[in-house]
Design a protein that fits this description.
The chain has 221 residues and is α/β, with parallel strands linked by helices. The protein is 44% helix and 15% strand.
Length: 221
């Protein structure tokens, strides 16, 4: 069994982000089309910012072709990798993983959704510490259907199977499901208005809070 010999990292996180104009389409009924892409960027900014201050994280690689998002996330300290395959989420994650391993073949990797605006560094650290003892692990989203996090120990292929009912696919692939209590912020991605309300109840980061408040204020005028 391949394991990470240092249970506190260093980990490289790979975060995929599609062009903002297409991001979070299921949020449109709640946010409107004007606010939706701005919130999608805010979610990613809060996700990346929280990940970068997590003591178990060495660096964050964002796979995106969106120039606005790339500039904003690079300013936070992320490394931007163009989505050269442009073949969807799993292809983007595999490309990001290959890019990281080309530089550091022994890197411990984790894929992380870009829409975790309530992410807490301490909860991410606990997730990564647990992951260090297994070749591959994953975190199921708050609905119990999808996936928000997938890890691969050094010399282990990431094999991302995100999208739809990905929990079942990741289980079938041999990844260990993380069922730790108290990691709600790692589970709470945002695809719908209900998800957004749940994230707001957990307490979102400053970028999301600011953009959501500004959007609500404009809607009240």
């Amino acid at each position: 069994m391949a394991t990470n010999t240092d249970p506190t990292g260093p980990w490289t996180l790979v975060v995929p982000l599609k062009p903002l104009v297409r991001a979070k389409s299921r949020l449109a009924p709640t946010t409107g089309d004007a606010l939706r892409p701005r919130l999608a960027l805010a979610f990613a900014e809060d996700t990346v910012a929280a990940a970068l201050v997590c003591p178990a994280v060495r660096d964050v690689v964002v796979v995106t072709d969106d120039p606005r998002a790339g500039a904003a996330l690079a300013a936070l300290g992320a490394r931007i990798v163009p989505d050269e395959p442009d073949r969807g989420l799993n292809a983007a994650l595999a490309h990001g993983a290959r890019t990281v391993r080309a530089r550091r073949p022994g890197a411990a990797l984790a894929a992380l959704n870009a829409d975790l605006p309530a992410l807490r560094p301490a909860e991410l650290a606990r997730t990564l510490e647990f992951s260090a003892t297994f070749p591959r692990t994953f975190v199921t989203d708050a609905t119990g259907i999808g996936t928000t996090f997938l890890s691969a120990a050094p010399e282990v292929e990431l094999r991302p199977l995100f999208g739809g009912r990905s929990r079942t696919r990741h289980l079938d692939s041999g990844a260990v499901e993380i069922t730790l209590p108290g990691i709600d912020s790692v589970r709470q991605d945002v695809d719908t208005g209900e998800d957004l309300r749940a994230a707001l109840a957990l307490g979102v980061g400053p970028h999301t809070a600011r953009r959501w408040s500004a959007g609500a204020a404009r809607a009240d005028r």
